[in-house]
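Quick one:
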Amino acid sequence: MSEQPKVALVTGANKGIGRGVAEQLAALGMTVLIGARDRQRGEEAAAALGGHAVTLDVTDPATIEQAARQVEERFCRLDVLVTTPASPGPGRSTPKTRATRSPARSTWTWSARCSRPTCSV
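Output:
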């Protein structure tokens, strides 16, 4: 009996560092979930990497909950969670709620929500 590939979720994986991390995890044979705030960009990245898109904004509890349900229903587990905090870029501001929420809180939410242990990298 062969072992199932580990399931990894990478936030901000549609570009930048998150995309690079997702590429490396896919190269290791993991099932990679591409977390992205923009559904279309997430789907495009997932198609390019052979992964699965998950619409997710780590500053929005509703999308965190929805993504957790989606992962649990489809994969029954999450083995690896990589959070790559995004910055709004030069000259752009972020709403106050985004600036005050931390990725660590999102990691805790995922760990508490999923029925099996997670590994935050």
